[in-house]
Amino acid sequence: MDSLSFMFIVVTSLLFTSQFSSATDTLTSTQSLADGSTLISKHGSFELGFFSPGSSRNRYLGIWYKNIPVRTVVWVANRRAPTKNSTALLMIDIKGNLVLKDGGSVVWSTNSKREVQTPLLQLLDSGNLVLIDASDGHSGIYLWQSFDYPTDTFLPGMKLGVNLKTGLDRRLTSWKNWDDPSPGDFVWKILVYNNPESTMWKGSKFYFRTGPWNGITYSGKPQLKPNQPFSFNFVHSDDEVYCAYYPKNKSVISRIVMNQTNYWRERYIWEEASQSWSLYTYLPTDYCDTYGLCGAYGNCIITDSPVCQCLKGFNPKSPDNWNSGDWSQGCVRNKSLNCQDGDGFIKFTELKLPDTKYSWVNKNMSLEECRGKCLNNCNCTAYSVVDIRNGGSGCALWFNDLIDIRQIPSGGQDLYIRMSASELARLETVKDEPDEKIVAIVIPVVVLAFAFLGVCYYFCQRRIIKLKDKNEIDGSDESSEEDLDLPLFDLVTITRATNKFSLNNKLGEGGFGPVYKGILADGHEIAVKRLSSNSGQGLKEFKNEVKLIARLQHRNLVKLLGCCIQGEERVLIYEYMPNRSLDFLIFVVIWHQSMRLTGYSQ
């Protein structure tokens, strides 16, 4: 090729590149995408381009929602290798790979194992960036796709799991922070056991598991019901293991994101009315979701606060540690198994099934066949059905200590746990007697709680008398921060913080109303107590109590941050106490009881 022809090709290519239109969804091998230009999917759902997150000046190639005013990035190509300026170019090289170059150096690239003559990059309306062979037409065969390499966001139609043929492991990893999309330490992935598990990790620490899939939902998350606005799919075949979800209404915009700030896996839905993302669900939902909290054969139960109990037929391995609240050593059998002496099973209901690492599955066996299979294997410790649909089918066996069990009222699954014949006989004789372990734990706790209540009540009365003598509390009907000596929150702020007082945010409920967890716009976590309409308080009484409690702050009690008085709403905002501590509950009880016992609110 002579120099004149070469110059003509170069100039033509440069002119073509400069005229590149960002109103297209494709990029050919003769084009490049510069910083400032974008690809837009066919119907305008997603956009590909360069961006800088938060306050960072680094540049990244990413995908975000096009038709949402709040830029929400769902995928980042070069999350480990940002560019420092705006000179980077995205192009397709001669081997058909997608390449991001900055100053001549390759910053990021794909690794397609198949070379093609007419490679084409296309951004789909699903948010998937795909590299295809244009000569194949619409075969649906991708040389490479971004859905195989997700970052922190799980989109509808995306697969999370493992391709058993190629070894491809599709997992989600959080951003380090809002300014840095490089991989954090919060990971969601599928563990490929005989009975696969959907799990989350904090670095190398096992953080949470959903429990195995039962045909409808995960055994540890029964809120995934068929009437949800999404359809869920879990595939376990010889070729792959993965989960996926799809909105039943295509107009619903939803995403799942790994948030390292609070270590939640959060599902958001876009609300057109408010033009904002609304938190729909999150995991873990409570302290009982903590992996292995109660140790082997321990069962986590949510009452006013999480508590571990040994399953029937078991006792704490270390009673002293157990009674002090350290449940990690778990429980041991009252009577050892005797495989040759007529072992049997006890049926436990509404449980999150144990960790399936040491398990075995047969999808075709009946429950009775499953029982026989377990009974004939001296190492088998429990069994359950695999699929709960149509009366139950399949067989799952466990061959080790049973870990990470929790009670799930109105949900969960049946689990049949192996017991020795002598223990079965003993349990039959004491089934109508009260549980001595529960009585032994509950009575001291109740005594201590009332003792603490009495001491605090004594000091409350003294403080009330002093406040009355000094006339620090007046009867004004005006509501202001100066009047209450406390910040006032507007109801809109509290409603958004609690996701419209969502049941998923509900921590518990006492005699004076429910308590919700909330997150303010600045990320601050709060506990919101919404007083019920039958609490018997008027505005004057409520304000007086708020002013009093603001003056009764104590280092051992949860801090009152503010309140909300709007219409008929009476709301109290506290600092959030992880695990819904006893201090918070005692504090609320003391406040209300002290008011009424002293006649202060009359």
What are its keywords?
602 residues; alpha+beta; five-stranded antiparallel beta sheet; 9 helices; 33% strand
Note down, in words, how this protein is organized.
A hairpin with a 2-residue loop joins strand 8 and strand 9 (105-109). The chain has 602 residues and is of the alpha+beta class. The longest helix has 34 residues, at 436-469. The strands form ten sheets. It has a five-stranded antiparallel beta sheet with strand order 29-34-31-32-30. Strands 35-36-37-39-38 form a five-stranded antiparallel beta sheet, with helices on both faces. A four-stranded antiparallel beta sheet has the order 1-10-11-12, with no helix packed on it. The model is unreliable at 1-19, 470-478 and 580-602 (pLDDT under 50). It is 19% helix and 33% strand.
Low-pLDDT segments, ≥5 res: 1-19, 470-478, 580-602
How far do the termini sit from each other?
100 Å
In total, the number of strands is 39
Specify the oligomeric state. single chain
Alpha plus pi helix count: 9
Overall structural class, as computed from helix and strand content, comes to alpha+beta
Over the alpha carbons, how many angstroms does the gyration radius reach?
30 Å
Mean pLDDT: 83
Helix content: 10-25%
Looking at the structure, what is the overall shape?
A: flat
User: What does the largest sheet look like?
Assistant: 5 strands, antiparallel
Give the strand line-up of the largest sheet: 29-34-31-32-30
**Hey, roughly how much beta strand do the residues contain?**
25-35%
